[in-house]
């Protein structure tokens, strides 16, 4: 019910959730507003968002309200699928990030 309420309040964002993963997409201002609303609603029931596990992927800067609440990343993995600029979508994605925090044991799909 919480995410349904957030979706109602921010109709221009898309909210998808699976288990403990929540993905919010849309324009940066609405995404930031939805994030902050989720954070406040969940805090009321004892769920604390871990900012260190929150990623921000955008070609625009984060709104000031998101400062320190999510790390800016060049690529993001959502439910096993990599999302990011075209350069990161190539078959060489795993070799490019072999020694980075984006390391994966899954081979690229040809």
What would the keywords be for this entry?
about 110 residues, alpha+beta, two-stranded antiparallel ribbon, two-stranded parallel sheet, about 25% helix
Q: Can you walk me through this structure?
A:
26% of the residues lie in helices and 18% in strands. With 110 residues, the protein is an alpha+beta fold. The strands form three sheets. A two-stranded antiparallel ribbon has the order 1-2. A two-stranded parallel ribbon has the order 3-4. A two-stranded antiparallel sheet has the order 5-6. The longest helix has 17 residues, at 28-44. It is globular and about 35 Å long. The termini are far apart. The relative contact order is 0.12.
SSE layout and pairing:
Elements: H1 2-9, E1 14-18, E2 21-25, H2 28-44, E3 55-56, E4 71-72, E5 76-78, E6 81-83, H3 93-96
Parallel strand pairs: 3-4
Antiparallel strand pairs: 1-2, 5-6
Helix pairs in contact: 1-2
Mean pLDDT: 81
**Anisotropy-based shape:** globular
Name the assembly state.
single chain
How much helix is in the residues?
25-40%
Work out the number of β strands: 6
Q: Tell me what portion of residues adopts beta-strand conformation.
A: 15-25%
Strand order of the largest sheet: 1-2
Low confidence ranges: none
For the record, give the distance between the C-alpha atoms at the N and C termini, rounded to a whole number: 40 Å
Structural class: alpha+beta
Rg value:
15 Å
Main β sheet profile: 2 strands, antiparallel
Helix segment tally? 3
């Amino acid at each position: 019910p919480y995410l349904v309420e957030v979706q109602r309040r921010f109709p221009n964002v898309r909210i998808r959730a699976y288990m403990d993963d929540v993905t919010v997409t849309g324009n940066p201002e609405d995404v930031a507003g939805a994030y902050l609303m989720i954070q406040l609603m969940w805090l009321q029931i004892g769920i604390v968002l871990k900012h260190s596990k929150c990623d921000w992927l955008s070609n625009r800067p984060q709104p000031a309200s998101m400062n320190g609440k999510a790390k800016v990343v060049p690529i993001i993995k959502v439910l096993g699928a990599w999302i990011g600029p075209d350069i990161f979508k190539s078959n060489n994605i795993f070799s490019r990030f072999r020694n980075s925090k984006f390391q994966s044991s899954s081979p690229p799909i040809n």
